[in-house]
Give the backbone structure.
Amino acid sequence: MNRTLRTLAPWIDRGGRPSLLRGAVFLLLWWPALDLARRWAVDDLGARPLAEAIHVAGDWAVRLLVLAVAITPLRHLSGATKLIGVRRMIGLAAAGYTLLHVTLWAGDLGFEFRTMAFEIAVRPYLGLGFAAALGLAAMAATSTDGMVRRLGAERWKRLHRLVHPILILALVHLFLQSKLDLAQGAILTGLAFAGLAVRLHLDRRSGLGWATVAIAAVTAFVFATASEAVWFALKTGRHVGPLLEANFVFAARIAPAWWSAAIAAGTASGAAAFAVRHRRGTAAVAAGSRRSR
Ligand code: HEM
């Protein structure tokens, strides 16, 4: 199968064989868009359908960006090389949902270029979103095999490391436009930094194994809490003490920091367990898990 056909049929792997993983991920990536279209068709988007659609598309853009960034540490932890095959698909889907998000926003403003430019210039959260969207567009445009060859592997890698600052810009954009509910932003911020911490830890290769799970959980907890606290202090000017204490009061709700830590620990444990089961994670993962058995 030639390269063009493979691009049109993303469920086909590099060896030209159908891949269950790629097929399943491809279908799942379409699901939010199809669900949004269904809700639009049956008039289920509330009083301000366009505003709701902008939010849904933005939510999926940033969730998928966090997932795309998490693939590299997960691959290192699990040893599942097939994960790399879906990283590009997830990253492109994040760019696609961003495009939908921005197009819907532009549609809301009647595609008035001058109004759009003015809004981006005067609202800092839109300025940051715009910078993130430009970065994502550059990454999507250079995601093909041809561009990897043209840029050379090292330059391409350096360019694509920009995904981390782009993700941070997108998260700040999310926080700045949040009015009350910070849960999603805090959970995603925790997960984004947990992925980064695991990656740095694996790069240094100092004591891998189940310690990595603890690093993921603690980092997620700390950054989810910190992001909420910073937002709260800046927005209300009030002391963050009660907000931090609320992390340890479980009567009304389980705080986002715990959800973030649980998702980070669960995902990292799954990856480490996969490595042990299939005996193909990094040698140190296997060694670490052997020690802890
Ligand atoms: C030109 C670029 C962008 C523009 C003009 C834009 C515009 C907007 C607008 C108008 C909102 C809703 C604000 C409100 O209701 O008060 C929003 C929210 C949001 N945007 Fe963007 N955005 C841009 C880029 C991005 C990017 C690159 C991402 C992620 C990759 C993103 C993710 C989000 C998220 C997660 C929300 C919050 C959704 C929610 O609260 O449910 N945006 N954006």
Summary: Residues 1-177 form one domain. Confidence is low (pLDDT under 50) at residues 283-293.
